[in-house]
Write a structure and sequence with these properties.
Length: 175
């Protein structure tokens, strides 16, 4: 059986990292079960990966790392008890790719054992770094800037994405 932890908050906050550790211990106690393995993301800089490594090492159990977008598709497959090969689409944000770059907007051909990356959103400069994940307008402006050239500023204003001053600032940041 698989028991996913409940959402405990933003893992950039050290208090939330401590809450995750406590949540794992609490779930083991409530379920009267010991984990047989730990599964986490592949991003080497994520706090959740560090916690997963610590738990696996302390308990002497295997650690399995799974690419971010593939994990989302696997979760949908597991929830629906589906084990056949699927075309999975994951547009939830960014994740650490197998090639060491940041992936986002992925189209994967996959099954529970493996996946093959068939397509993705073309890489673009994401101004504001991780802030873009919380302020989606930044991504919309960047994609319009890359795809529409000189028309992007007017499109951003017309669509209510951002004003001309903000667009110009974002464009300068992207250079």
């Amino acid at each position: 059986l698989l028991y996913a932890s409940p959402f405990v908050g933003d893992m950039a906050d050290i208090r939330t990292v401590h809450a995750l550790r406590e949540s794992v211990d609490r779930m083991c106690g409530l379920l009267e079960a010991e984990p047989e393995l730990v599964v986490c993301d592949t991003h080497p800089m994520y706090n959740t990966v560090t916690v997963a490594q610590e738990i696996a090492q302390a308990r002497g159990i295997p650690l399995i790392q799974v690419q971010h977008h593939y994990a989302h598709i696997l979760a949908c497959m597991a929830e629906n008890e589906y084990t056949q090969r699927v075309i999975g689409v994951s547009f939830d944000g960014t994740g650490y790719g197998d090639d060491g770059t940041i992936w986002g907007g992925e189209l994967l051909l996959c099954d529970p054992e493996e996946y093959d990356r068939k397509g993705s959103v073309k890489p673009f400069v994401q101004t504001g770094g991780d802030l873009s994940a919380k302020e989606g307008w930044r991504i919309a402006a960047a994609l319009l800037r890359d795809g529409c050239g000189e028309d992007a500023q007017v499109l951003c204003e017309t669509l209510g994405i951002c004003d001309a001053k903000t667009f110009t600032l974002q464009a300068k940041m992207a250079q």
